[in-house]
Structures are given as C-alpha cells and as structure tokens.
Amino acid sequence: MNTHELTDVGIKRDANEDAVLTASIGEQYLLVVADGMGGHAAGDVASDIATTQIEEIVANSLPAEETEYEAILANAISAANREIHAHATDDPSLSGMGTTVVAAIIDEAEATVANVGDSRCYHIDDDIEQVTIDQSLVQELIEAGEITEAEAKDHPQRNVISQSLGTTDDVEPDFYTQGIDGTLLLCSDGLTEEVSDSNIAKIVSEEPTLTETAETLVHRANQNGGSDNITVAVCTRSEEE
Predict the structure, then answer these.
(1) Residue 120: in which H helix or E strand, if any?
(2) Which of 68, 131, 144, 155 is the most buried (most CB within 10 A)?
(3) Alpha-carbon span 71 to 76, nearest angstrom
(4) Which residues form the domain of 169?
(5) Residue 186 maps to which CATH number?
(6) 16 domain-assigned
(7) Measured distance between the N- and C-terminal CA atoms of the chain, rounded to whole angstroms
(8) Is the residue at 197 inside a domain?
(9) For the chain, what is the total number of helices (H) and then of strands (E)?
(10) Domain count, the chain
(11) What does each of the 241 residues of the chain score in pLDDT, given as a tens digit?
C-alpha cells in the first residue's frame, strides 16, 4: 500500500484543529482523520487525543483476523471518547471540546471503516463513492424526506453533527467495509465544503502520485474559499500488489 497525509489550516481559521494519521502496523495500515469541533474550546486537543489513542489501541490489537477489525476500531474509538471526555471534565479550560473521527484499518483485501460525525471516507476508481454516511442533522433531514441532498449543501445547519467524541459518556460509530480497487480518501469537511465530489474524483484520477493528489485537493479547497481546516489521508495499492 501507498499512503499520504496532509493537513492545512485553510484561509479563514487562525488555528488548525484537525489531526491526521497514517501508519503501517505489521501487514495492515491505519488511517485516521479527526476534526476538532470548530468554535469549541480546545478542538485541537480533542483531535490529537483521538488520533493518538486510536493508533495506540489498534497497534496493540494487531495482527488480527479481518473479522476482528470492526471490534478493534470500536474499542479504540470508545477509549478515545472516554479519554477526551475525562480531560474535558477535569480541566475547565477544555470543557466542551470534541471531535469527529473517521478511521480505517486496511489489509490486502479491503478496508474496514468507522466514523463518528461528518468526516468522510470516499473510494475513487472509475467513479467516486461516499463510503460513510454523515452523522449530522442534515443527513437525518434527508433520510426523513424533509430536504434533498442539494438543499443540504446550503442548509444553515449543515455543520451540526449528531455525534462527536468527547461530549458524552458513550459514542456509537457506524461501520463500513470497502474493497480497495482504486484510491481510498479520508477527509474532514474542510475539503467537502469547498470541493464537489466530482471535482475530488477528477483530481484523484488526474494526479500521478498520492503526494500531488493530497496537495491539489488542499490547494483547490483553499482556492474555493478555505473556510475551514482541510485534512486528507489517501491510500492506494502499490503496483506490485
């Protein structure tokens, strides 16, 4: 597997509250993107705890059978949630902090993906597929038939998420399985708020390396406004695989 990660503060934010991790753990790979809650205290602390805790627990749990990946991610995300919540409870300066997370354990066959909040996973091959479903207010409204996907893009509450790490005692990730025939992309909403799915797919298909892919995605998000921190982690099979 080849991987690359990149995070950028964007144009309009003073600090970067996102965190990103790509790691090789034995024969598996771990990708994590966390988006510290914008406008909340210490979002950068929350996202850093999330990536650190998830890496530590996943690393201590591998190698494992593919059937165990979901349980490993569930355990890691639960531990990260408890750690963030404890810090926020113990330190008044950190009160209210939280973070989204999207994480993937990848082996030679497929990726097992977990998400909390609205950070996303995409798979791009001949087309682009959004692997994860946002845990957000507008997604709930879409599923209830109250708004369309087009209306959701401009909805005044499109950034309201229904779950995050650290703000409650318990958290319930959603899990997905995805074959890796093309490029796997994990990202914060700083990318998807500024760059359409079709343009993401175009960039991924046109750039010759993962480094250039990540750089162009971030650059395009900044060109289009850079209203939030922008974070991407990309993964594709090596040619010899």
Answers:
(1) strand 120-124
(2) 131
(3) 9
(4) 2-236
(5) 3.60.40.10
(6) yes
(7) 8
(8) yes
(9) 7, 10
(10) 1
(11) 999 999 999 999 999 999 999 999 999 999 999 999 955 669 999 999 999 999 999 999 999 999 999 999 999 999 999 999 999 999 999 999 999 999 999 998 899 999 999 999 999 998 999 999 999 999 999 999 999 988 988 898 888 899 999 999 999 999 999 999 999 999 999 999 999 999 999 999 999 999 999 999 999 999 999 999 999 999 998 765 4
